[in-house]
Amino acid sequence: MKKRTKFYALLFAMVLSLTQMIGAAVPVKAATKECSHGYTLVNGIGIRMHECGESVCITCYHGHSKRVVIPKTFKLNGKNLPPTQIDWADCGFSENGVKEIVIPDTLDYLGYWDEDEVNTSYKDITFFVHKGSKAAKAVQAEGYKYRYLNDNSNPQPVKGTSIKRTVRIQNLTKITWKKVKCDKYEIRYSQKKNMKNAKKINCGKNKTSLVIKKLKKNRKYYVQIRTKSGKKYSAWSKVKTISKR
Ligand SMILES: [Zn+2]
């Protein structure tokens, strides 16, 4: 009897490794993976067609990430569908060590159909949602732990500008720069190339030149410019010299 069990175990292992070998050779597109529960598996996330037929329901988790980001759409039955629901039962998330689930705005239901049922699922998991989204309301409705996603977490760098030229006339200088789209310009100038003790001047977005007065005679100056868009600044431009006079 024991021997027989061993034989089947060996046979099972062989079949498993064989399917893995074949699986590795088959293009990803051709194979629809299925999880052990019989649901479609996409990057460790189990999904099924929602009853409405126009969206996806998240059923389970088979991966090992601490933070799971639920995609905005899933390809299922040849359609790109948004997820609208996560099944109320924590199937594999906590078990596999998930601590955070980032859910898209389209996801509007995480509950159980029977409202009298005490839902203890996902109690050690924090959901990440956009403030004011349907997803935010859904996690709040279930009393799950959640935090708001910060949209500035992946900022686009602010486009800077450069100084075209500086003209020195006695104790003043005129600086001109390239116009770019921004909310305002910030100019700084100093007698030191490293901008030590620099003075700063702000200019409106429609300006492309500035006259600085009261420069010291026979002193060289250095000037730089950057732009501000919203609350963010661009990098400073290259340092330009203001010749002495
Ligand atoms: Zn599953």
UniProtKB/TrEMBL annotation:
<keyword id="KW-0732">Signal</keyword>
<dbReference type="Pfam" id="PF00041">
    <property type="entry name" value="fn3"/>
</dbReference>
<dbReference type="InterPro" id="IPR003961">
    <property type="entry name" value="FN3_dom"/>
</dbReference>
<protein>
    <submittedName>
        <fullName>Fibronectin type III domain protein</fullName>
    </submittedName>
</protein>
<feature type="domain" description="Fibronectin type-III">
    <location>
        <begin position="154"/>
        <end position="245"/>
    </location>
</feature>
<feature type="signal peptide">
    <location>
        <begin position="1"/>
        <end position="24"/>
    </location>
</feature>
<dbReference type="InterPro" id="IPR036116">
    <property type="entry name" value="FN3_sf"/>
</dbReference>
<dbReference type="InterPro" id="IPR013783">
    <property type="entry name" value="Ig-like_fold"/>
</dbReference>
